[in-house]
Amino acid sequence: EYHSKIRVIPQGFNFDSIELPVYSKNDVPTFIFAGIFIKGKRDPHKLMKFLVDIDKPFCFKVFGSNNHQFLDEYKNKLGDKLQICNPLPRTDLLQEMAKADFLINIGNGTNVQTPSKLIDYTLVKRPYLTIETDDIKEDILLEFLNGNYEHHDPDIDISRYDIHNVAQQFISLCK
């Protein structure tokens, strides 16, 4: 009986204060994943096994708090191709992502909510590719590593998350 009274208002972000560097192509294809891994859900093992077999230079930077338990076994195999990085404050991470050639999102098996990382990925204006734990889209990932981003994921509508629009939604509840 209360469903008509429920309003869902997304988290708001202040986009006004974000200044990003101008992108220039990296000498070596550089891509980033930011976030945490979840065994069996947002699991990087198939991706990492695929990357180990790629015989071309690249740099994969992974930012997150639990990376070592998932990636240490691949660090020896990939050497400098894999950079395991500590979490950064959001504004610093946005700077890093804006310098990458492309970004990787590993889905978590649900489409109920938009991950905040996709808001950030869209905000930095870099192409990104969503892969799944069991479907890493090898052909498209190879295209990305060769600088072809034709099959990138579409950007999300980040205006929904602009703090000005979110605040307006709260104000409209009082009318």
Care to describe what's here?
The chain is built from six helices and five strands; from the N terminus they run E-H-E-H-E-H-E-H-E-H-H. With 175 residues, the protein is of the alpha/beta class. Strand 2, helix 2 and strand 3 (82-85) form a beta-alpha-beta unit. Helix 1 packs parallel to helix 2.
Mean pLDDT: 90
What gap, in angstroms, lies between the N and C termini? 21 Å
Low-confidence stretches: none
Task: Please state how the strands of the largest beta sheet are arranged side by side.
Answer: 3-2-1-4-5
Biggest β-sheet strands, sense, barrel:
5 strands, parallel
Oligomer: single chain
- Counted by DSSP, the helix tally is 6
- What does the radius of gyration come to? 18 Å
Q: Could you estimate the helical fraction of the residues in percent? A: 25-40%
Could you state the order of secondary-structure elements as H and E? EHEHEHEHEHH
> What spatial form do the alpha-carbon principal axes imply?
globular
Structural class, please? alpha/beta
Strand element count: 5
- What percentage of the residues does DSSP assign to strands (E)? 5-15%
